[in-house]
Design brief:
Elements lengths: L1 H12 L3 H11 L7 E4 L2 E4 L5 H12 L4 E2 H7 L2 H4 L2 H10 L3 E4 L2 E4 L1 H9 L7
Antiparallel strand pairs: 1-2, 3-5, 4-5
């Protein structure tokens, strides 16, 4: 389905396949009922392990990278106190990739969020 939709967008907008896929990613967002956005800040509505909390926030944020500063602002104090350790653990497990100040959720990280059903409704 993704390929068909991307092809339709590519043809209709006369863009490259990569640009079409980026357009689709910008349009399609994954619903995360576990998160309520308050004044632009995502609030996770149940207690999760530190690593799971980080992954859910990145999952909610979508395709693009999030800066470490933005991620810190979005995480509760109990997680930010262990921020370096949590980031290192996620990198070691290939769940995220860190490039300078940018944090990316990897396909393995997405898979973990979905397999553990971390985003299921309350």
């Amino acid at each position: 389905m993704d390929w068909i939709l991307a092809e339709l967008v590519r043809i209709a907008h006369n863009v490259t396949p990569g640009e079409a896929q980026d357009l689709i990613a910008d349009i399609v967002t994954k619903e995360v009922p576990l998160i309520q956005e308050i004044e632009g800040k995502p609030i996770v509505l149940k207690s999760l392990a530190h690593l799971d909390h980080l992954l859910v926030i990145l999952y909610w944020a979508g395709q693009g990278p999030i800066t470490k500063g933005q991620l810190r602002d979005w995480l509760p104090d109990r997680v930010t106190r262990n921020f370096s350790r949590v980031i290192a653990s996620a990198v070691k497990g290939y769940l995220i990739h860190v490039e300078e100040d940018r944090v990316y959720l990897t396909p393995l990280g997405i898979d973990q969020v979905e397999k553990k059903q971390l985003i299921r409704p309350l």
